[in-house]
Design goal:
This protein is mostly helical. About 9% of the residues have low confidence. Helices cover 75% and strands 2% of the residues. It has one domain. Keywords: Membrane, Transmembrane, Transmembrane helix.
């Protein structure tokens, strides 16, 4: 497979997406795990983004190995290429957490709708049944509306065990997101540092070398 984009090695372009995307996804997962209203709105784009980023991570690793065979091999480049594979388990971990957050969000929305239906009073019998049912409809609709579930009345109407279970799962997912996100971010920093050393160490001078405007020499006295 030819890993080139517009005549340039794809690795030097893809790596920027991964370097920025991994930490952003890590922060977003922590927010969604700890904030129910946010995850009920953003769970779908987040899980899609996590899978896209996972695919780009694998492409970045493969394109890096492709590029390694087309440059002068040095110990620093070999070390950077091997170290690049360290991000794989962290990227998979972030994707798994995104999927679990999506599952939690779907369960919450179903519980919200079920609580809203259960909160609707049974229609009374007699001549006032029609008027009472009509008056109750706007309340039930308002309670069930919105992707966030208007959590006040509906969460209060949910069974205590369900609320407790959701809270426990949310706390565990928050801890997992913090741990995995921190590990992924630190790994990206380490890989980026190794890549910078592989490219620039020994290939630049501490002082200007050419005849540009910033050079110290070459002027007439």
């Amino acid at each position: 497979m030819d890993f080139q984009i517009a005549g340039l090695p794809a690795h030097i372009l893809l790596v920027h997406v991964v370097v920025v995307g991994i930490p952003l996804l890590a922060v977003l997962l922590v927010v969604l795990a700890a904030w129910p209203a946010a995850r009920r709105v953003l769970w779908l784009p987040t899980v899609i983004g996590a899978f896209v980023l996972l695919g780009l991570t694998y492409l970045t690793i493969e394109s890096g190995e492709w590029l390694e065979h087309r440059v002068n091999e040095t110990p620093l480049i070999e070390a950077h290429t091997e170290q690049g594979k360290d991000i794989e388990p962290w990227a998979i971990g972030l994707t798994v957490i995104a999927v679990l957050i999506a599952v939690l969000a779907i369960v919450e929305r179903r519980q919200v709708r079920r609580a809203a239906v259960d909160a609707v009073p049974a229609p009374p019998t007699g001549a006032t049944a029609s008027a009472a049912t009509t008056a109750a409809r706007p309340t039930s609709t308002a309670t069930a509306a919105g992707p966030t579930g208007t959590a006040t009345a509906t969460d209060a109407a949910a069974p205590p065990r369900a609320r407790t279970a959701r809270t426990v799962v949310s706390v565990l997912l928050t801890i997992a997101a913090v741990v995995v996100g921190a590990g992924a971010t630190w790994t990206i920093i380490q890989i980026g540092d190794a890549g910078a050393r592989a490219v620039w160490q020994g290939s630049y001078s501490d002082s200007p070398t050419g005849g540009g405007e910033g050079s110290d020499g070459g002027g007439d006295d």
